[in-house]
Amino acid sequence: MKSIAVIGAQWGDEGKGKIVNYFARDYHWVVRFSGGANAGHTIYVNNKKYVNHLLPSIDPRTESLGFLGAGMVIDLEQLIREIETLEYDFPGIGSRFYIDPEAFAVLPWHKEQDRLLESMRKKPIGTTGKGIGPACTDKVSREGIKLYLLEDEPALKERLENMYTLKKELFGGRLGMNPEEMFGYLLSLRDKLIEIGVNFTSSIDLSKSFREGSVLFEGAQGVMLDLDFGTYPFVTSSSCTVHGVTSVGFSASELDAVFGVIKAYTTRVGSGVFPTEEDSSIADTIRERGVEFGATTGRPRRIGWLDLPAIKYAIARSAFTHLIITKGDVLSGLDEVKVCVAYEIDGKEKAVPSTSHELFKARPVYRTLKGWSSISDRAFAEYIQLIESETGLQVSHISYGPGTDEILKRSELFDR
């Protein structure tokens, strides 16, 4: 397959980074098309752990290249730290990353705004504090900094002065740097990126390379956190569906496959509705076994049973062609496992919600299955078959550990 996408089908943290890293060895390009440093994709290379918040999850041992698309909001300082971490083990890797100059910058002002706004809310959203929301707000209100301004210093200086004037009116003197300091800060980051070999190249200029080679699109967060279709307002500020690939000049219809990644259970970080959430001791057991703590924030993740109505909603919103299951091994050893197969909404049973708002009113309808001692057991195969029959999609791969190679094709597992 020349072009595929790997998308989170739940509330993020499904293990997409590992799945992308697994596929990346067979692709020339790995492309992040949305989101910012609020995402955390954990990969293992030569048994060493790396957490990418911005970098596409390329396999450093191959010749694959990474592209950060125009739909992203990029914290340049964080990006430099991630590249330098990889440079320690893979010298020269910075030159394998490309950034679209049409992408927007996340500024220290945005991070401070994020903290201020969260502290002012009567009911906090539970943001990561990485400045994503304010950066996207500036993008939409036409106040933001596109990265191509780093090469137009007079225009950059003027834009920063205009931004600061407005922000000072709104937030007083609580934003730290003045415009001159911010100007110097951004130019120093630009120079550092150039020094370590990062390329600023438009997706238009790379279009031929994308289409003549092979490209893997790496989603951020999950469909249930999508700005348009997630459980608003407890969502992120950008596109989490496959349709975000338009920011790189692609259409979802051009892709050969769209893989929706789901855990064998469900997790969520931060506030917001969570129909299958468990608050019993079983949640603590799953959290500890699955090491369910945010890659970006370190916060303990909320734990719940697998939610098939939410997954079917995600399938409808993001045009998945296959599913990939992660962490089935985490549930090994439980006597029984519950699966939400429908919602009760306003007294009526519903197999899939029509809108994200219906999740706020949903009561889960569960089916209880026999547990399994390992993913090789017949009971686990029946669990997978239930997912497939309910969703109408085949599970193509099953991940059973944190390592990149700890993954099996469906046929490899069940034929054994």
Automatic annotation (TrEMBL):
> Pathway listed for it?
Purine metabolism; AMP biosynthesis via de novo pathway; AMP from IMP: step 1/2
**Amino acids binding IMP:** 13-16, 38-41, 128, 142, 221, 236, 299
Q: What is its EC number?
A: 6.3.4.4
GO CC aspect terms: cytoplasm
Gene Ontology biological process: 'de novo' AMP biosynthetic process; IMP metabolic process
Q: Where in the cell is it found?
A: Cytoplasm
Q: Name the catalytic site residues.
A: 13, 41
Tell me, in a sentence or two, what this protein's role is: Plays an important role in the de novo pathway of purine nucleotide biosynthesis. Catalyzes the first committed step in the biosynthesis of AMP from IMP.
Name recorded for this polypeptide? Adenylosuccinate synthetase
Q: Which organism is it from?
A: Kosmotoga pacifica
